[in-house]
C-alpha cells in the first residue's frame, strides 16, 4: 500500500504548485496594470507642463494703441482736488500743446513751460495741489463727457505737486565732552547721544509740512512689445 500513498502525495504537491503559479500570474498582471496607469498619469502631466506652447492668436495679443510718430495733443490742469473732471474750467488749464510726435525723441517732441502760480489761502495752510495731465490723438478731446471722446484715443495721469514731510525737530543732542565755554559754537568731534526719552515725552505728535515741487517732468513710455 506504500506506492499509492506516494502517488497521492505527489498529486497533492502538484496541485499546490499549480495554484501558486496561478496566483503569481494574477499578481504580475495586476502590477502591469498599475504600472501602465502610472505611466499614463505621468505622461499626462508632463504633456501639460513641458509640451511646447502654441503661438497666441495675434488678435489676442496686447499691443500699443498708438503708432510711432503719431501726433498727440496734451493738456495740463492744476487743481486742489485729486479727482478732476472740470475740463471746461479755462482757469485750471495752464498748459496746452498740439501735434507732439509720439515716441520720436528730438527737438520737435520736447516742450517746456515756466509759470508762476499764486496759491490760494487753503493751499498756503498745508493744502494739496495736483497736476492732471491728459494726452489724446490730435483732434480728439480728453473730456469723457464730450460727444467726440473715444476711450482708446485718450489717457491721463494725476501727479501731486506737494510733498509732505515731517517738520524738523529741535536738536536735543548732548555732547559727552562737557559744557566747556571754549567748545561753544564749535562742531562736536567726539561721541554724541540723543535723548530719545525726552523727545518722546516733550515733542508729542509729528507735524507734517507741505513742500513745493518746483519742477515736473512728463515723459511718455515708448513700448511696442506685443
TrEMBL record:
<protein>
    <recommendedName>
        <fullName>Cleft lip and palate associated transmembrane protein</fullName>
    </recommendedName>
</protein>
<keyword id="KW-0812">Transmembrane</keyword>
<keyword id="KW-0472">Membrane</keyword>
<keyword id="KW-1133">Transmembrane helix</keyword>
<dbReference type="InterPro" id="IPR008429">
    <property type="entry name" value="CLPTM1"/>
</dbReference>
<comment type="similarity">
    <text>Belongs to the CLPTM1 family.</text>
</comment>
<feature type="region of interest" description="Disordered">
    <location>
        <begin position="1"/>
        <end position="28"/>
    </location>
</feature>
<dbReference type="Pfam" id="PF05602">
    <property type="entry name" value="CLPTM1"/>
</dbReference>
